[in-house]
Amino acid sequence: MIIDSHLHLPVDFPDFLSKGNALINELRRNGVDKGIVIADSELESVIGSVRDCAELFKGSGMIKVVAGISPFISFNSQLTLCRKLLESGDIIGLKLYTGHESFFCTDEVLTPVYDLAAEFKVPVLFHTGWDNAQYAAPAKMKELSQRRPQNIFVYCHCFYPDLQQCFDTLGSCENVYFDTSSVADDAEIYPQIKNTLATAIAVMPERIIFGSDFGSCSQKTHLEFAESLNITPQQRELFMCGNALRVYNISP
Predict the structure, then answer these.
(1) Does domain 3-247 match CATH 3.20.20.140?
(2) By three-state DSSP, how is residue 67 classified?
(3) Of 80, 175, 79, which Cα lies nearest the Cα of 126?
(4) Distance CA 95, CA 83 (A)
(5) What is the three-state SS of 158-223?
(6) Which listed site, 21, 33, 71, 155, has its alpha carbon 20 to 30 Å from 213?
(7) Vertex 100, ends 172 and 147: CA angle to 5°?
C-alpha cells in the first residue's frame, strides 16, 4: 500500500469537483492507494477551505482531509467548525501555515488549536523551511514538543532544504513526526537530500512519512525519489504507508 500524506487540490481546474477528480486520477495513475488532502487556512481559496475540502471528500474511503487553520482568520468560528468536523470524522488533523503566515509555532494564541488536537488525538501539522523559516524552526519546534508532550506534531517538508538540522535537532522529540513533501523538488541537491533522509529513516523508521505536496510538486517524482532510497523493505513499508496509518489513525 502507498499513502501520500501531503496533497493539495490542483489549481488548474474550474471547480472543486473537477479538482477533486483530477487529484484522484493522479493517485490512480501513480498507483497510490490513499491520500491526505490539506485544506487552506483561508476561507476562500483555489485549493479549498476546510469546509470545501471536507464537503468534497465526505465519506471517501480514498481521501482524508486535514484542516488548515489560522489565528488571524475567523479563529473562533473556525475552531468551532473544526470541532464539528472532528466529531463527525470528516477531518483527521489540523495544519498551521507557519511561515506562510507570521506567527511562531510557540505562540500562546495557538493553545486552543493544540488543546483541540490533543482532545481528539489528531496531529497538528506545520509548514516548515524555505523563506520565513524562523516561525517553525527546529529549535522552536523542539521547545513546543517539550511543552506539549500530549500532542502529536507533523513537521512538513523536514525544514527543507536543511534536513540535517531538522533531524539533528528534533530526533529526540518522540512526539514529532516528519513528512517528506517537496524534498525531491531540486535536482541539484537531490543526492544530499537522499542520503540524509535514508540515514534518518534508518535511525527512526517509525517517525518519517511519505508525502509529495502534489498540487505544487510532482507526485511521480517523489514516488521515484522514495523508490531510490537505500532502506530496508520493513523501513519502506513504514515510510510509504504504515506510519501514516498509525499517526493519522486511518483504517487500511
Answers:
(1) yes
(2) strand
(3) 175
(4) 14
(5) HHCCCHHHHHHHHCCCCCEEEECCCCCCCHHHHHHHHHHHHHHHHHCCCCEECCCCECCECHHHHH
(6) 71
(7) 30
8: cell is 493539495
Instruction: Identify the pLDDT of residue 172.
Output: 98
pLDDT digits (tens, 9 = 90+) for 92-140: 999 999 999 999 999 999 999 999 999 999 999 999 999 999 999 999 9
The helix/strand/coil state of 152 is coil
Per-residue pLDDT band at 187 (split at 50, 70, 90): confident
Distance CA 85, CA 27 (A): 24
- Give the amino acid at 3: I
Q: Classify residue 86 as exposed, middle or buried by CB count within 10 Å of its CB (0-12, 13-18, 19+).
A: buried
Share of the chain above pLDDT 70, in %: 100
CA distances from 165 to 85, 90, 112, 239 (A): 35, 35, 29, 20
Per-residue burial over 156-187, b = 16 or more CB atoms within 10 Å of its CB, e = otherwise: bbbbbbbbbbbbebbbebebbbbbbbbbbbee
Contact (Cβ atoms closer than 8 angstroms) between residue 53 and residue 45: no
**pLDDT at position 203:** 98
Q: Prior bond to 233 cis, omega within 30?
A: no
| pLDDT reading at 252 higher than 90 | no
CA 206/CA 131 separation, integer angstroms: 28
| Secondary structure percentages of the chain, helix, strand, coil, to 5 | 45, 15, 40
Q: Which residues pair with 66 in a beta bridge?
A: 38
